[in-house]
Design brief:
heterodimer; A: about 160 residues; alpha+beta; 8-stranded antiparallel β-sheet; 4 helices; B: about 110 residues; 3-stranded antiparallel β-sheet; 5 helices; about 10% strand
């Protein structure tokens, strides 16, 4: 494909390249160094990772072997997420494990690649690799659960697509 | 239109309950009898029958009699469809990423002021 069509910033594209993977692609209208900082500095991570919920960044040691732990608070409940860094190549590549407190012992491995698009924008490609297809599908389904609070209009669209 | 929103209410009601979502998830892996489901969810047969009826009304589950047991499978309106999951997951990711956009925007402004 040529670069004639400028890929738009601002929409995540989620695909499943294999039975055990989830791939997210997203373009940010910001330089790579800044996207890196927003992903690795606790103060900045706390401002977006919780999707509007309060987030405590309990630990974020961005070095090979270092650990991270975030706790998200919503409606009197809290959800913990944690993992360990396997590769850290500033400002272009981070490999880390991701594990939810609700499913201990079932981590997936996330590889995030930040590409400098040369025009002040950055492309993020994050691939999550699961041990089994079932574990991956469980994660996708949790996304479905997250959507349960959405409007009837959204449900209508979903049902129209899958019936 | 009235008929249409009733259908929607039924489906929404059906999947708003965590047990029923659990039943759909389980039936996504394999068909099961009402008895299997009742013991899997630690419920009485009667209680499970009620849940299955709600799912059946919403066309999320179909049942058929096999010998003496009633076997449940995912219905014509399948909730285990991968594209549907991906669409939901994408929304969740986007909720996060749009906030990251905002953080990046703020940080860029700070950088400009320096």
């Amino acid at each position: 494909m040529t670069t004639a069509v400028k890929q738009q910033a601002g929409t995540s594209v989620v695909t499943t390249p294999s039975d055990r993977e989830i791939r997210i692609e997203r373009i940010f209208d910001a330089p790579r160094e800044l996207v890196w900082r927003a992903n690795t500095e606790p103060k900045l991570v706390a401002q977006w990772w919780g999707r509007g919920n309060q987030l405590d960044v309990e630990r974020l040691d961005v070095t090979k072997g270092g650990r991270w732990r975030y706790v998200e608070h919503h409606g009197g409940q809290s959800d913990g997420f944690e993992g360990r860094f396997a590769e850290v190549v500033r400002p272009e590549r981070i490999v880390q494990t991701f594990e939810w407190d609700g499913m201990p012992g079932y981590p997936c491995r996330n590889t995030a690649i930040l590409e400098d698009l040369g025009d002040g924008r950055t492309r993020l490609v994050e691939t999550s690799l699961f041990f089994t297809k079932e574990e991956r599908d469980g994660m996708l389904q949790s996304g479905m659960e997250q959507g349960m609070n959405q409007s009837f209009v959204e449900l209508d669209k979903l049902l129209a697509r899958i019936k | 239109m009235v008929h249409y929103s009733t259908r929607l209410d039924t489906a929404f009601g059906a999947i708003s309950d965590p047990t029923r979502r659990g039943i759909l998830e389980r039936l996504g892996r394999a068909d099961a009898s009402i008895g299997d489901l009742a013991s899997a969810f630690d419920m009485t047969l009667t209680g499970m029958k009620k849940h299955v009826t709600v799912l059946e009304d919403a066309k999320l589950v179909t049942t058929r009699k096999v010998g003496r047991v009633r076997l449940c499978s995912l219905g014509p309106r399948r909730m285990d469809d991968e594209t549907a999951w991906i669409a939901r997951y994408q929304r969740m990711v986007e909720e996060r990423m749009s906030r990251l956009d905002a953080v990046l925007e703020r940080e860029k402004m700070k950088g400009d002021q320096r």
